[in-house]
Write a structure and sequence with these properties.
The protein is mostly helical. It is 51% helix and 9% strand.
Length: 93
């Protein structure tokens, strides 16, 4: 039987199907970022703002945070300029 490199075994031995999926999606988002450098994914928004994913999504719905853009079937991103403007508009502690 030919070894495809994808198995349900532990992470220590061979790459799992989940690892392969993560690699494919990471590659997709890297290409997306290169093509559209002005877009940020949720991880970047969380890192820059220091807010939780939940508060970002809820405040976006309530109009207190920049709205996301739908970039795929189940994917959203934010305009980097909108996030930077929101950060600048916040009062300093």
């Amino acid at each position: 039987m030919k070894n495809t490199g994808f198995s349900a075994s532990s992470k220590d031995s061979q790459p799992s199907a989940w690892n392969a999926l993560d690699y494919v999606t990471t590659d997709f988002y890297e290409k997306l970022r290169e093509e559209h450098p002005g877009l940020m994914r949720i991880r970047e928004v969380v890192r820059l703002t220091g807010r939780s994913r939940t508060s970002i999504y809820m405040d976006s719905i309530r109009g207190r945070f920049p709205r996301s853009l739908k970039i795929g079937i189940q994917s959203v991103a934010w305009r980097a300029a909108d996030i930077y403007a929101w950060i600048e508009s916040r009062p300093y502690a």
